[in-house]
Amino acid sequence: MKYLLSFEKVLNIIIKFVLAIQGFALLSLLGIEVFFRYVLNSALSWPGEVAGFVFVWFTLLGTAYLVGENAHIAFSLISSRVPDSVKKSLYLFTQLMILGYAYFMIFPGYRYTKMFSFAVSPAAGISMAWLYSAVPVSGVLISFYAFINMASTFFGRGE
Fold first, then answer.
1. Are 132 and 148 in contact (CB under 8 A)?
2. Domain count, the chain
3. How far apart, in whole angstroms, are the C-alpha atoms of residue 124 and residue 120?
4. pTM for this structure?
5. 135: part of which helix (H) or strand (E)?
6. Residue 18 CB contacts under 8 Å (≥ 6 apart), including other chains
7. Could you read off the pLDDT of 34-71 as tens digits, one per residue?
8. Residue 65: which H helix or E strand, with range?
């Protein structure tokens, strides 16, 4: 468990770094698009499309990170009203639901990525596999974090 938690810490650092780069890229791409469209009066076709790719990855990686931090949307109204003896079971049920969601991100997402990997984006010419692969990759990360959360519930964080 100790090594898994160390791996989780390193993974968190990597994901936060990637999210920061993606956030900067989004601002830059949208800034470029606005500048060319409204200042130079000559719109570019690719910044909006690339920003869409980055936004999808940003959103899904952010979701995985939030699952790892237990900062995702939760129904605290229910958990705040149940006895402490039920809270652990409710939390585990929530993590199992998250795992079920991740399953549908990983396997159908992978099939979808393979099915349309030949397609390219019209303006930027980027393989659509880059866009579609965000779903299964994030599903794997969400699964990892859900397993860590469940193991931590049973065995503690060990820190």
1. no
2. 1
3. 8
4. 0.88
5. helix 134-155
6. 61
7. 999 999 989 898 999 999 999 999 999 999 999 999 88
8. helix 46-68
* Calculated CA dihedral for residues 56, 59, 65, 69, nearest 10 degrees: -160
* Residue recorded with tokens 């900067």: 24
Domain coverage including residue 66? 2-155
d(CA 136, CA 119): 18
DSSP 80: T
Other C-beta atoms closer than 10 Å to the C-beta of 108 total 13
Tokens 């866009």, located at residue? 131
The answer to whether the beta carbons of residues 53 and 121 sit under 8 Å apart is yes
CA-CA-CA-CA torsion sign (96, 101, 104, 106): negative
Residue with token string 């979701």:
63
Q: What long-range pairs does 70-78 form, CB within 8 A, spacing at least 24?
A: 70/149, 72/98
Assigned token pair, 70: 């237990």
Q: Please identify which residue in the block is written with the tokens 């898994």.
A: 4
The token duo for 52 is 């869409």
